[in-house]
Amino acid sequence: MNNDILKVLYSKDEIDTACQRLGKEISQAYAGKVPVVIGVLKGAIFFMTDIARHVDGYMQIDFVDVSSYHGGTSSSGTVELLQDINTDISGRDVLIVEDIVDTGRTLRFLLDLFDKRGANSVKVCTLLDKPAARIVGADSDFIGFSVPNEFLVGYGLDYDEKYRNLPYIGVLKPEIYTNN
Ligand SMILES: O=P(O)(O)OC[C@H]1O[C@H](OP(=O)(O)OP(=O)(O)O)[C@H](O)[C@@H]1O
Ligand code: HPA
Ligand SMILES: [Mg+2]
């Protein structure tokens, strides 16, 4: 699996350091509140579990499963809601946890969905932000790294449902997806 990686962008240690910093920022932002922290499956699974343990304060957690890449390297343009949250977020402070904001379509879909349900506030924490790829406006409040416009894998991010379990984030060799 490591042989398919062109270069490592962020090591496990760099990701851990970013999680610590973001955990502090989120702890301060929600001091005295009990946010509903919503992880976006499947990509954000590892980031969600790491970040939650770096937040010093009460929180509820939930997950939403949405998909638009269908295993490939480009957005299908349509975001499908595969599994909804089961928390009533009306009047609540919501924090969406994403692995990456790329075109912005997934995040825009979730921001609109949670706004419509009457959340008191909806903020976003993303590990990776890829601003050069943005098609739809969708800003994050807490950002781990701003990344170049390359297809990334690892630490939750997949190509063809593989590579999610890499402990680091890397750039996939283009021949892996151009040969398929
Ligand atoms: O900004 P966008 O262009 O919408 O891309 C970002 C979204 O795409 C990926 O999810 P994907 O649809 O691949 O599902 P997955 O998390 O199950 O891999 C990623 O985990 C984000 O949720
Ligand atoms: O760069 C990426 N890698 C994996 N999944 C993704 N989903 C959106 N962007 C990416
Ligand atoms: Mg994916």
Automatic annotation (TrEMBL):
Similarity-based family = Belongs to the purine/pyrimidine phosphoribosyltransferase family.
Keyword match Nucleotide-binding: yes
- Localization: Cytoplasm
In Swiss-Prot or TrEMBL terms, this protein is called Hypoxanthine phosphoribosyltransferase
Example GO molecular function term?
hypoxanthine phosphoribosyltransferase activity
Which InterPro entries is this protein grouped with? HGPRT, Hxn_phspho_trans, PRTase-like, PRTase_dom
Q: Which pathway is recorded for this entry? A: Purine metabolism; IMP biosynthesis via salvage pathway; IMP from hypoxanthine: step 1/1; Purine metabolism; GMP biosynthesis via salvage pathway; GMP from guanine: step 1/1
Its biological purpose is as follows: Purine salvage pathway enzyme that catalyzes the transfer of the ribosyl-5-phosphate group from 5-phospho-alpha-D-ribose 1-diphosphate (PRPP) to the N9 position of the 6-oxopurines hypoxanthine and guanine to form the corresponding ribonucleotides IMP (inosine 5'-monophosphate) and GMP (guanosine 5'-monophosphate), with the release of PPi.
Gene3D superfamilies the record matches: 3.40.50.2020
Q: Which residues form a coiled coil?
A: none
Q: Which GO terms describe its cellular component?
A: cytosol
Q: What residue stretches are annotated with the Phosphoribosyltransferase domain?
A: 13-159
Organism, by scientific name, is Lentilactobacillus parabuchneri
A GO term (biological process) for this protein?
Answer: guanine salvage
The EC designation for this entry is 2.4.2.8
SUPFAM superfamilies attached to this UniProt entry: PRTase-like (SSF53271)
Q: Which UniProt keywords apply?
A: Cytoplasm, Glycosyltransferase, Magnesium, Metal-binding, Nucleotide-binding, Purine salvage, Transferase
Which cofactors does the annotated protein need, by name? Answer: Mg(2+)
Give the reaction(s) catalysed. Answer: IMP + diphosphate = hypoxanthine + 5-phospho-alpha-D-ribose 1-diphosphate; GMP + diphosphate = guanine + 5-phospho-alpha-D-ribose 1-diphosphate
